[in-house]
Design a protein that fits this description.
The protein has helices spanning 16-22, 32-49, 62-73, 87-98, 116-125, 147-154, 176-179, 205-212, 223-230, 241-257, 259-279, 304-315, 341-357, 366-377, and strands spanning 5-6, 55-59, 79-84, 102-107, 129-135, 137-138, 143-144, 160-164, 183-187, 198-203, 293-297, 317-318, 320-321, 330-334. It has 2 domains: 5-10 and 258-378, Aspartate Aminotransferase, domain 1 (Alpha-Beta Complex); 16-257, Type I PLP-dependent aspartate aminotransferase-like (Major domain) (Aspartate Aminotransferase, domain 2, 3-Layer(aba) Sandwich). The strands form 4 sheets. It has a 7-stranded mixed β-sheet with strand order 2-10-9-8-5-3-4, sandwiched between helices. Strands 11-14-13 form a 3-stranded antiparallel β-sheet, with helices on one face. Strands 1-12 form a two-stranded parallel sheet. It has 14 helices and 14 strands. 44% of the residues lie in helices and 16% in strands. Helix 11 (259-279) runs antiparallel to helix 14 (366-377) and helix 13 runs antiparallel to helix 14 (366-377). It is globular. The model has no long low-confidence stretch (mean pLDDT 97). Bound molecules: 4'-deoxy-4'-aminopyridoxal-5'-phosphate. Residues 9-10, 61-63, 88, 135, 137, 139, 164, 166-167, 187 line the site of 4'-deoxy-4'-aminopyridoxal-5'-phosphate.
């Protein structure tokens, strides 16, 4: 018998109460019944994003919301600043390029976070930048960026700050209104604890205004159209009804736990994961570790693909490998969404079992002992 667990930074495990809610018969979306559900969901999303501004929902994966941001928040001929420190930062630049937007790129060595000073410098040096695109947790490198400090720079200028929090939302502290962010994009299959298929974008007043003046081509991802429908608790096109019904339950769970407690839980599991990995003698990859996912360097003599296969096939524990130039060099363990201390102990213990099976020398029980110490001290 095998029991499967997702320790990947998306998709993540979905709570049974959410799965059951989604198994209910589909309701029609142009009804008061659907609008009532959507209204509750939209209130829950505002709490999750910490905003009083509208949060739009698209039937898409997270990248759809990234595309919506580019296609609505820039005008042709404008320039954007993009932080490229991993695969997802690069994606911002690629989308901009598709829309004919010139980008100024800050290239950050993978594993490091951009410093607010680097953004300030680039804005001072390059004239005509209208939007800054950043990534809260760069999932490919497990790096967290200081969004609060970057927002302090952009909110005082005629520059919009757009943040990819596809993996960070619900895991890292994020205060949309208080920090003065202009747009945050996210997706369902990470901290929100749903299957893939929904994309979200929260928009500040100035971002909404800018979208009304947009001139780049778009159709499905029109922010003005989605904002107009939202006034009636509707979406312009058929929404992913069952996912939205599941979302109501997932957001209710987040509200019941309390968002600050959710953030603290992620910080604790991240701290325990790092302690456990280091106790196994593994080297952490990120210089600015996130609470979403932890990356470790695969030790000499061990093949990353083989390690992941043993964990998956023998123990049902799915962890992620490295992406692009980090393929075969790192593995990534998420502590994201529907996860508790028990899950963290499970993944650390199965990692230890798999490593030992592949001939890696480490002390039995070292990882879980280190994690237990973190849990007992309640750090994080
Ligand atoms: N940005 C980040 C930071 C992500 O982690 C991901 C998904 N791994 C994406 C964007 C893309 O999201 P999706 O695969 O849902 O389109």
């Amino acid at each position: 018998m095998r029991k499967d667990y997702l320790f990947t930074p998306g998709p993540t495990m979905v709570p049974p109460e959410v799965l059951l809610a989604m198994a209910q018969p589909v309701i029609h979306h142009r009804t008061a019944q659907f609008s009532a559900v959507f209204e509750e969901v939209n209130e829950g999303l505002k709490y999750l994003f910490q905003t009083t501004q509208p949060v739009l929902t698209f039937a898409a994966s997270g990248t759809g919301a990234m595309e919506a941001a580019v296609a609505n928040l820039l005008r042709s001929g404008e320039k954007a600043l993009v932080v490229r420190g991993g695969k997802f930062g690069e994606r911002w630049a690629e989308i901009c390029q598709r829309y004919g937007i010139e980008t100024v790129n800050i290239d950050i060595e993978w594993g490091r976070a951009v410093s607010p000073g680097e953004i300030e410098e680039a804005l001072a040096r390059e004239k005509g930048i209208k939007v800054v695109f950043t990534t809260h947790c760069e999932t490919s490198t497990a790096v967290r960026t200081d969004i609060e400090a970057i927002a302090r720079i952009t909110r005082e200028r005629d520059v919009l700050l757009v943040v990819d929090a596809v993996s960070a939302l619900g895991a890292e502290e994020l205060r949309f209104d208080a920090w003065g962010i202009d747009a945050v994009v996210s997706g369902a299959q990470k901290g929100i604890m749903l299957p893939p298929g929904l994309a979200f974008i929260a928009l500040s007043e100035r971002a909404q205004l800018k979208a009304q003046q947009g001139d780049l081509p778009n159709y499905y991802f029109s922010i003005p159209k989605a904002l107009k429908s939202l006034e009636k608790q509707q979406t312009p096109y058929t929404p992913a009804v069952s996912l939205i019904i599941g979302l109501r339950v997932a957001l209710g769970m987040i509200r019941d736990e309390g968002l600050e407690n959710v953030w603290k839980r992620h910080a604790l599991l991240a701290e325990a994961t790092r302690a456990g990995l280091e106790a196994l003698g593994l080297k952490l990859f990120s210089k600015a570790p996130s609470n979403v996912v932890t990356a470790f360097e695969v030790p000499e003599g061990i093949e990353a693909g083989r390690l992941r296969a043993v964990m998956r096939e023998r123990y049902g524990a799915n962890i992620a490998g490295g992406q692009a130039q980090l393929k075969d060099k790192i593995c990534r363990i998420a502590h994201l969404g529907y996860m508790t201390e028990s899950d963290t102990l499970l993944v650390l213990n199965t990692l230890e079992l798999a490593l030992r099976e592949l001939g890696y020398a480490c002390e039995r029980g070292a990882a879980s002992a280190a994690a237990v110490r973190v849990f007992e001290s309640g750090k994080g």
